[in-house]
Amino acid sequence: MKLIRNISLSAIFCLCYFFILSATLAVERIPESQMAKDTWGLEEQSPKYEWGLEEQTPKHDKSDSIILHYDGKAWDCIYNGHGIWLNSIYGFDWNDIFAVGDNGVILHYDGNSWTKQESNITHRLNRIWGSSRDNIYVSGDYGTILHYNGEKWTKYHMMTTNWLSSTWGLNEKYIFVVGAFGKILHYDGKKWKEQNSGTTSWLYGVRGNSKDNVYAVGDYGAVLHYNGKEWKKFVLNTNKRLMSVCVAGSNDVFVVGADGLILHYDGITWTRQRSGTNNWLRKIWSIENNNIFAVGDYGTILHYDGTKWNKQKSGTNYLLFGVWGDSKDNLYVVGINSSSHYNHMLDVSYGTK
């Protein structure tokens, strides 16, 4: 009887180990169609960097949101928001900057102070972009797209309730919005039309530099390219979430995402660049092809000088979600308190009140 009991316990242990191992492999497994990395040049992924960025100590007042400014030498906190959770920032000059976030919040900076603008929205706003201060677009949850004409914000009545994660345009008549389940919308200056993305992956970022050179990135290593006629998907050797893309040139594309991942495309091959961090990178912004910034979790700010990525002292441990700037000595970053409840899988923040 004792022998039977020992055999039973051993069998149960083996079964548990098998299921745990299977679950782990299921998370890390890369589809067979993506295994041939030599065909496109992505280098073998290195183990977690032991010298990655440490969590930084805040040098500012505790609040729910912050806005940082970079003068070319150091990052300083210029705004503390209470009961506000900011996700994105965009501007047109040092005295004309907008920031958006949860609960429909929209802030505007006139060079002296940040003031709230009325959005008539109560849910989360994710990204902001504009061709001029009287032609600004914001994408948000539940199919939300807002437009600002320089005087007031109005909401488009869209035929979708999908969460819309990002927006970018070449001009006022060529705008893209991407979001959940591979949703891609295009605006021609008159009406919005849905485009076939060829994927059901959630898309988090969109950016381009011409009508026939636009990129969108998202879950499970999704990288899409638009050639002016259709979207085509790259096959990459990663299943990580890709959060943001910047197009510094026709053959100079950067993508950032989960666990400090940075990918670069030179028009022929994708290669992984060494970021020096395991923290998630949320947004990337280029001033020039040798002046690129990436921001992310726990106060992570990286700068690319054309050769390598270097860490910068942000003076905060907040989760940094947005970055915008018009020169190498005038950049802004928005983020939320890292103690807020944050869900990586849904990319949703729940403020603690």
Domain count, please report it.
1
Q: Portion of residues in helices?
A: under 10%
* Annotated CATH homologous superfamily: YVTN repeat-like/Quinoprotein amine dehydrogenase
Per CATH, the class reads: Mainly Beta
Tell how many strands the DSSP assignment holds. 30
Question: Strand-residue fraction?
Answer: over 45%
**Cα distance spanning the termini:** 58 Å
Helix tally equals: 1
What is the architecture at the second tier of CATH? 7 Propeller
Shape: globular
Overall pLDDT: 85
Describe the structure.
The chain is 8% helix and 47% strand. With 353 residues, the chain is mainly β. It has a single domain (57-342), classed as Methylamine Dehydrogenase, Chain H, CATH 2.130.10. The strands form eight sheets. A four-stranded antiparallel sheet has the order 2-1-28-27, with no helix packed on it. Strands 3-4-5-6 form a four-stranded antiparallel sheet, with no helix packed on it. A four-stranded antiparallel sheet has the order 7-8-9-10, with no helix packed on it. A hairpin with a 4-residue loop joins β21 and β22 (270-273). Mean pLDDT is 85; it is low at 1-53 and 349-353.
Topology (SSEs and partners):
Blueprint: H1 2-28, E1 65-70, E2 75-81, E3 86-93, E4 96-101, E5 106-109, E6 114-117, E7 125-132, E8 135-140, E9 144-148, E10 153-155, E11 164-171, E12 174-179, E13 184-187, E14 192-195, E15 203-210, E16 213-218, E17 222-226, E18 231-233, E19 242-249, E20 252-257, E21 262-265, E22 270-273, E23 281-288, E24 291-296, E25 301-304, E26 309-311, E27 319-327, E28 330-336, E29 341-343, E30 348-350
Antiparallel strand pairs: 1-2, 1-28, 3-4, 4-5, 5-6, 7-8, 8-9, 9-10, 11-12, 12-13, 13-14, 15-16, 16-17, 17-18, 19-20, 20-21, 21-22, 23-24, 24-25, 25-26, 27-28, 29-30
